[in-house]
Structure formats: C-alpha cells, structure tokens
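Why do we care about 3D structure at all? Because function follows from shape, and shape follows, mostly, from sequence. That is the central idea of this module. The next example makes it concrete: a single protein chain, its amino acid sequence, and then its structure expressed as tokens.
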Amino acid sequence: MVAIDNLERMKRPDEKQYAWVGNRGFEVAKAILGSNVKFINMDVCDIDPSEMGKFDIVLLLGVLYHLKNPMLALEKLSEVTKEQLIIESECLLTPFRKPLLRYCEGDSYNQDPTCWFIPNILAIQGMLRDAGFREVKVVQRMLGMKGLLRLILHRGITSGRVIVVAYKT
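And the structure:
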C-alpha cells in the first residue's frame, strides 16, 4: 500500500502557514494503526505506473477540487487503477443537466485559496469516463444545512459532497 501527498505545495505563499504540519497526520495514523503503508511526497499528476505499479483500489478523498489540472490527475490515476477508484469530493449541486465546473478565483470559495475547480456530479462522471473508467456510480450525495440554505437563497446552485466509485473492469 502507498499513500501520496504533495508536500511541496506547502511552499506556496497561500499554504506556507501549514508547512510545519508536513505529513504528521499520516505518520500518527500509521503508528496508531500499526500500518505498513509507504508515504511518497508526490503530486498526483506525476504518478507513473512504471514506477508505482498498479493498485486494485485507489482513493482520492477530498482532493479533486484542490487540483489545478483535475483531468490530468484523473488520467494519471486511471493508469494506476486496476479495478476501482473511489472519489469523495466537494461538488456543485445544480438543476442543470450539463457537466459544469466552477472556477474558484483566489480564495473566493470558502476563503480557501487552494480550491481551483468545483465540478458538478455530471462533470465528475464524464471526466472519469473520459479518463478510462468503464462504469461510474454515485454512491452518496450529501447536502448539509449550510448547503440547503444556499440552495434556497441562490435558487438552485449550491455545493455539497459526493462519493463516486469508478470501475475499470
């Protein structure tokens, strides 16, 4: 098992305040669980199956909307996925029946300068199919009270969370 995170991103001005954390959370969890997971400091867009191999199950949890190049990242993950990719992500919840991505300039999304694109569910599904996944299933949609209030106030556009499973075979 392998876990990756891009610690280099913490050298950016908008994330320098978190640099001291490094991968401490991972190391604490690894120690508590007695895990033998190997940590690699790497950007998801630099994944190479010839170096890493392939994995039965790949997790992309809370990362998709933080990626400047989400399509490239999904293509790279497809290359190392044998069976399934599980994604948990922020998503736009809209009444529109078209794939959409919201671009988040600066810290315009939740005052978080690390958010780049918030996709709707149709965009996530389409991107996964185009990245090489045969079947894509939405297994959970979540809308909290804050999202429900935004849905009412903004008349049909808000955000929530989604869990999607994409299958290679």
